[in-house]
Amino acid sequence: MNIKNIYCTLIILLACIIQTNAQEVLTIEQAMTIALENNFEIKIAKNNSRISETNVTVGNAGMLPTATANITDNNSVTNSTQVRQDGTSTSLNNAKNNSLSYGVSLGWTVFDGMKMFAKLDQLKELQKLGDAELKRTILLKIGQVNSAYYDLVQQQHQLAALDTTIVISNQRLTLAKNRFSIGKASKLEVLNAQVDLNSDQVALLRQKESYANAKILLNQYLARDPKIDFKVTDEVNVDNKLVLADLLDLAQKQNPALESQIINKRIAELQLKQVKADRYPTLRLTTGYNISESQSSLGFTSENSSKGLNYGFNASMNIFDGFNQHRNEKVAKMQIENSQIAIEQQNMILNTQLSTAFQTYLTNLELIDLEEDNEAIARQNLEITLDKFKIGTITTLDFRTAQLNYVNAKVRYSNAQYEAKLSEIALKELAGTINF
Q1: Where is the signal peptide (predicted)?
Q2: Domains in the chain, ordered, with CATH?
Q3: What would the mean pLDDT of 293-319 be, rounded to a whole number?
Q4: 367: nearest Cα among 422, 436, 427
Q5: Which residue in 27, 28, 134, 190 could disulfide with 49, CB within 3.0 to 4.6 Å?
Q6: Rounded to the nearest 5°, which phi and psi values hold at 121?
Q7: 4-12, long-range: CB < 8 A, 24+ apart
Q8: What is the average pLDDT score of the chain?
Q9: Which pTM was predicted?
C-alpha cells in the first residue's frame, strides 16, 4: 500500500471516529417537540383538559332519564302466637316468613326551570377553561425550554471565548519563556504569564461546570435522563420586528390568563341562571315495573304475590325557603361582578407586563449592536497588542488588559443576544404567539 492510500485510509478512519463520538446536536424545534411529548406538567394539563371534555355530556347536565334496578329479600324465623276474636289461638315455633320484591324504576326530570341547559353550557365553558389552562401550561413550559436552550447557547459562546483566551495565554507564556531564555525578560514575567494562564484555566473549569448544569436543567424540562449529552446550535436569532401595538392586540385574543378570566365570567353568569331556575317548578315523570312475593308459616294467608306497572309524575315548587333564594341570587350576581373586575385587573397587568417587557426588548436590541461593535474593536485591539507584545514594545500588564477586554467583550455580546432573546420569548409568551 502506497503512502497516498495509507493517508486516505487514515482520513476515513478519523472521520468515522469523529462521527461516532460526535454529540447529538439538539435544535430548539426538537427540544420543543420533546417537551410537548414528555414534560410532566404538560401531560397533567392534557389529562385535565381531557377530563373537562369528558364531562361535557347531556347526562351529566341532568337531561337524560335515570333507570334503577332494585331487589329486596327479607327473611325471619320467629315463635308466633295468634289469638282470634272467638278466643281460639294458634301457636307456632320457628315460624318462617319471607318477603321478596324486585323491579325496575325509571325517572326523568322533564322541566327544572331550564337549569339543565345552563348546566350543559357551563360544562362546555369548563372545557374551554381546561383548554386555556393547557395552553397556559404549554406556553410556560415552552418558554422555559427556550430560555434554558438559549442559556446553553450563551454558555457555549462563553466557553469558546475562554478557550480563545487560554490559547492566547499559552502563547504569552511561551513567548515569556523564550524571552527569559535569551535574557530579554525577567523570571517575574514568566511567573505572571503562568499565573494568568492558571486563572484562565480555573475560569474555564467553572464555565464547564455551569454549562454541564445547564444541560441537566434542560434535560429536566424535557423530562429525559439528565445524563443525556448533547450540543446546541451556536446561533441566536432574535426577532427584531416585534411591534407593541400588534402584541397588545394579540394578547387580547390569545393570552391564556386573560382568556381564563373571560371564561370564568361566563361560568359565573351560567351559575346565576341555574340559581334563578330554582324559582320555577320542577316536573319529574316516574314509572316502573315491580314484582313482589311473600310467604308466611302462620296466618290467614300463606303466600302472596303481585306484579305490575306503576307510573305517575311529581311536581314541586319552592314557595318560601327563608329568603335563601334571594340570598343565592345576590351572591351569584356578586360573583359575576368579581369576574368582571378580575378581567379588568388582568388586562391592566397584561398591558403593564407587555409595555415593560417591550421597553426591555428595545434596549436589548440596541445593546446587541453596541456590543457587536465593541467585540470587533476589542478583537482588533488584541491583535495589535499581541503583535506589539511579540516584539516587546508593550508591558505584560497592557497585554493582559487587552486580552481580558476581548474576552469580556465577547461575553457581553453573547449576553446581549441572550437577554434580547429572553425579552422576545417573554413578549411572545404574553401575547400567546410562541410557535410550538
Answers
A1: 1-22
A2: 23-77+112-285+315-431 (1.20.1600.10)
A3: 81
A4: 422
A5: 134
A6: -60, -35
A7: none
A8: 88
A9: 0.81
